[in-house]
């Protein structure tokens, strides 16, 4: 039962992100909008960590990998996805972003030397196929104008960035770093990076 609940929460949060991005686009610059969003997240996460008195100290090497996580998962990934969604529908953006599954498989092999079973590729392709079927009406009406092509390139760049961020996250996990504190630092670093862009 707990796994089903966690799955439903993940689907609700991750799935609604694409719609939230679409509504967030507007008069405010993408970088400013993201800076506000992540500053609020960083504030909440730091508040929780401090309230729970969680240890927040890490060595310089770990901070370097946390900064990589922030750059790829929280800053560059979101800048690219927000920019892409100015040219594509949220459905098309979600479909293109699923290529991150394949990128994660390849990057896990490249960065960690982990062999990948054929069933994992098959599962990833089945997942992508399911998303494509779900959003087929949006795909059917897609014309690859210059703007749509630019949006697609931006989404693929975002997916690659997120995949590289995931590799930093895997490294941090293997090093035994606590998730909550790492993400609090990551959100703070991501906010600073976004503010500087």
Give the tags.
197 residues, mainly alpha, 9 helices
What do you see in this structure?
- With about 200 residues, this protein is mostly helical.
- About 80% of the residues lie in helices and about 0% in strands.
- The chain has 9 helices and no strands.
- α2 packs antiparallel against α3 (about 60-85) and α4 packs across α8 (about 145-175).
- The N and C termini lie far apart (about 45 Å).
- The model has no long low-confidence stretch (mean pLDDT about 85).
Spatial extent as radius of gyration: 18 Å
Portion in beta strands:
under 5%
Largest sheet: none
| Mean pLDDT across every amino acid position | 84
Poorly predicted ranges (pLDDT <50, ≥5 residues)?
none
Please trace the helix and strand order, writing H or E for each element.
HHHHHHHHH
Amino-to-carboxy terminus distance: 43 Å
The structural domain count equals 1
Form type: globular
- Report the total helices: 9
Helix content estimate: over 70%
DSSP strand count = 0
Alpha-beta classification: mainly alpha
């Amino acid at each position: 039962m707990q796994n089903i609940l966690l799955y439903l929460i993940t689907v609700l949060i991750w799935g609604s992100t694409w719609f939230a991005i679409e509504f967030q686009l507007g008069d405010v610059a993408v970088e400013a909008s993201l800076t506000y969003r992540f500053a609020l997240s960083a504030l909440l996460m730091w508040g929780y960590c401090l309230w729970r008195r969680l240890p927040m100290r890490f060595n310089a090497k770990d901070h370097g990998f946390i900064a990589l996580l922030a750059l790829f998962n929280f800053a560059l990934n979101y800048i690219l996805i927000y920019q892409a969604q100015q040219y594509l529908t949220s459905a098309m953006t979600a479909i293109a972003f699923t290529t991150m599954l394949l990128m994660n498989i390849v990057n896990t092999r490249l960065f960690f030397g982990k062999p990948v079973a054929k069933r994992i590729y098959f599962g990833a392709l089945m997942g992508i196929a399911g998303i494509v079927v779900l959003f087929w009406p949006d795909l059917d009406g897609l014309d690859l104008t210059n703007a749509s092509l630019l949006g697609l390139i931006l989404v693929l760049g975002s997916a690659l960035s997120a995949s590289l961020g995931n590799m930093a996250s895997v490294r941090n996990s293997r090093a035994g770093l606590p998730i909550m504190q790492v993400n609090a630092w990551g959100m703070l670093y991501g906010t600073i990076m976004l503010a500087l862009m």
